[in-house]
Amino acid sequence: MSEGAQFESLKTKHAELETALNAEEHKLQPDPQTVADIKKQKLLLKDKMALIEAGA
User: Fold this and answer.
1) Which residues, in sequence order, are CB contacts of 11 under 8 Å at separation 6+?
2) Separation between Cα atoms, residue 3 and residue 49, nearest integer Å
């Protein structure tokens, strides 16, 4: 997989996590652990995207 394709894949996953985070936060009683887990996953993806950009 090329870096461009990998970056786009990570970007898509990041957007999916953003959607999941918004859905969880708008529940009547959002689960704090789920919110924290999603945020951690988003940060990991963002770090991976930054590494790809730095290497390009």
Assistant:
1) 49
2) 10
Give the span between the Cα atoms of 6 and 55, in whole angstroms.
13
Structure tokens at 11: 């970007």
The secondary structure of 1-56, three-state, reads CCHHHHHHHHHHHHHHHHHHHHHHHCCCCCCHHHHHHHHHHHHHHHHHHHHHHHHC
Helix axes 32-55, 3-25, angle to 10 degrees: 160
pTM of the model: 0.88
**Alpha-carbon gap, residue 23 to 25, rounded angstroms:** 6
pLDDT of res. 56: 64
